[in-house]
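Protein modeling request. Please complete all fields; requests missing the sequence field cannot be processed.
Requester role: graduate student
Desired output: 3D structure, token encoding
Chains: 1
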Amino acid sequence: MIEQLFGSKTRVKLLKLFYGNPNRAFYVREITRKIGEQINSVRRELSNLLNVGIITSDNTNNKLYYEVNQKYEYYDPLLTIFGGKSSAASKSSNKVGTEEGVEEEFKALGHVELVVFSGLFTSDASSPVDVLIVGNVNKNAVDKYIASLEEDEGKDINYSVMKLDDFIYRSQIRDRFVTKILNSKTHILLDRQGLINV
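Delivered output (198 residues):
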């Protein structure tokens, strides 16, 4: 039924992939593996989605990556249809823009001030970590959260946890580690105090 409405089975699978992982970029071969469709039909539908403006593309490290365009006019309705709750990452990122929802999502981890996704989640190898969490957090809860991300992604997640004072100090002195994270391609899931502008 939904395939008839949206034109093709491949297009529907792509929309589910992109809207189920709104803060994640994918390259063509990875997409074909994840949705189990032929590369030619995937390329054709990616071209269609690009032309409409539903997705964007970016050339990083000599690979062409595609991700959902969160500024697309009909992003919210399509997210409602295709977003789902497919992974821990998407469950967090689906709520980007609703500060209350995001805070609720990370409440189990403790008192979280900042959550940054980079590296694996933004296809930027220059970032030293995939996830940065700033705040006073419960180590066991963070370990469980990261383990669920690793299970969803099928890859090890490189992450770092910092206390708020430590992050502010390291930002102010232009600490190399923090600077590399913030200069890479990032998705800010939560920033309660505008720390990224510190």
